[in-house]
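Sequence in, structure out. First:
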Amino acid sequence: MVSAKHIHQLREPGCWAILADKKDFEVGNSFIKRSLRRHEWQIIPGDPSITVVPPTTLPQRFANDTAVLKYLAEKAPSIPLPPFQCVFEDDGGVYHATGRVEGVSTNELSQEDKLVVTQELLQHVATLRSLRSDTPGVSGETLLCPPMRITSRAWHLNYCWRPRGRSDRDELITAIIDWEYGEFWPECAAMEGEQDDRERCREWLLAYCDKVEMLHLPNFDEKLPAPNGTCEGKQAH
């Protein structure tokens, strides 16, 4: 376990962001997300007895991201996406790599360009809403990672996007990233006068889905043969 201060001081070359559950890297032409290993779990400042335990669903969220990128590349080629490279597990960590896309923060855009980005985003959202599925989740994936608005009692914004600046094309948005929660679900939140469907979604999950306990990802030491010649394995807590 490590404090947030120390994990930032000791971060590897290419690591530009550390969250409570993963690290983000830019290495060469790749953008890489990696789940935290157990020794990287962070303790609460001021109370070292409390550890922030990352959700065990992160490997499946990376699988979701991969499935969505492949699905949209086929079904909605007009949506700009980073090129998928690979996803794999190593030494207790899961890696998800896509091509690195150059861009700038929206804060650096002129007001005119911000309006263009807004219109482009609305077009992409309309394209996403035109896609249809008979079942929730991601096409081809049997495991579901419900959005936070369904699994928690508070509403959160789960559709993540990130304009990455100009390219050789006419559009300003060069790639929309972070599709970990990009699944087929009802609208994100009930607007004024609309019916709140969170409870209905929860009831559907309880009625038609089984809770799956994600397996613990063993690190290198845990993969070494035990004295009896077998490898040790653990369940996620």
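Second:
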Amino acid sequence: MINRMLKHFEDELASIRSGLEGFRKRFRREAEHINLNDKGQEDPNVTRLVDSFAWVSAKNAIQIDSLRTRHIEEFAQIVSPNLFRTLPTVVKAHFKPNPDDFNKPVFLDKKVEVEIDVINKGDENTQVTLCNSLPITFSPVEISSFKLEQTPFEHAIPENLDTKHALYCLRVALDPISLEVDMKQVLSQPLQLHFSNESIGRNVADIINHALLDVAITIDNQDQSVSLGRENFKPLVIDNDFIVSPIAKHEIPIYFKLKEYFSIPEKRHFFIVRNPYDIAVEPGQRVYLDFYLNELGSALVEEKKLEVKINKTLFSNLFHQTSEPIRVNYQELSYPVIADASQSHIQVYSIDRVFRIGNEGATEIPPILGKEATDFNQQLYWSQTTKLGRGRNIKALSGQEVKHLIFPLNKSSDTLQNGFTAYSEITCFDAFLANKVHVGNQIIVNTEEALAGEFTVGGVAIQPNLVSTDEQNYWNMLKLLSFNMSQLLTVENAKESLKGFLRLFINTNATHHELNVIYDVTAKKINSPFLLEGRMVFVPGMKIEITLDNSELNADYSLFIELLNDFFLAQTAFDRCCQLMVSYTSFNWPTKVFDAQLGERVCS
């Protein structure tokens, strides 16, 4: 239905373009005929007229194209408004608690905005507003040591540990920062760990995720080790709660997880450990986290720069505020939304809500694209468009994107003949953040939480910011929405078809090894049994067999295939099933077979 509608729209635009082009060619022929009658001498008035018409024709062509873009842009606002927006700039930060004042775990929720004073040597402190991107519990502990051990182990091990396959143990020692720290309370909260290495290629975090058999907690000087289970160790890159990008409730999380997997590699290093048990431990006592690995853990033996850290997080440059008031006089086609009249480097990331100021106070104006029906003849509503800024007159850097509001001319404009004043609740970002925050900066967070300590900046990951909105993004969205799992059965080259859709989530100018290692893709029809409402039912579906080329060891294989499994489930209809099986070309790596699951897509 959508494709037919767009095809009809394209045909209409093509006919308009054809008419304009034919008129322009005929006009130029007439002009050349006039010049020839004048003995070949050009008439400057005719030349100026021809050039003027060429300019008008080009402007009309731009307006026609903008109609098409606007049509698809508003469609994108309905389906997934945040998917193709530029990712936020990410600031990596490491919290070092003060042992005198910090003795209990403190939770910093996602989207909590923090006022930061950046301490620059020799310069005045710079104030920056950032937003916490990862919900994290800061713990009053530090990692005093970590060591990779090989079997036989000289410490206590869990009773149910598979000693035949557990050949390695990465032992991480957690020490309280003071004797007053209640370690039992610390272990009852999630522990967010950061694994990293300096070698080029595969991340050590992916090696651990691939080789992990079990996670255990061992109390110092005790002969008992408590198994937490493999399921209580989870990478943040596959967790819906740790998506950095703004995301609406109706948007599909796996799309954003894939996008951030490719564009924010730092997220791949983070893991969260949850302890579901009540473990007896004395205040101030050392605790070990034991990560038991199979034969694939041998890759860690050669890692010389392995690091394990705690209390690391990511901040983004997004924050919320109220825009400058807008005076709507119905004499303009659109009205620029200005974040801050005094700071031209503060730009608008998204318009969240719009309000009209009247005698009765502020009244919210509904968007044109909403769940409730809109009376387009009577009701006041708003839409938005994106334009390029032109200098200081709209408080934006020239060439940067500026959000504009569009209001209707209907019966509502008759009741508000003199116009009205409006303002917006907006999400903003600091375009100059990279010039303010640098590696090694000390930052002070002024929050309501008792974060007694200091943050150290570990780096700033700048995301590519397009000068203008790429029209291709909207066509990519239509391709993504039209992707059907059955295509992998019918296309001649299923591998290229899959890689083509995965490329919709990445910057086309970047190289991503995960796409290059896809060696083969095969899809087969299956019927799998499911227990539904007490009855065994065989559900038709698809089994996807993927072979990855691991000969170069240059990709994060285990994290990538977990995201692929989520992607296939999101693309599978709810009344169908899907199963993923992944094999490798080299080193006799074991085949990974995911359980067959029912799809998540509510419509086919």
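Remark: DSSP finds eleven helices and 30 strands in the chain.
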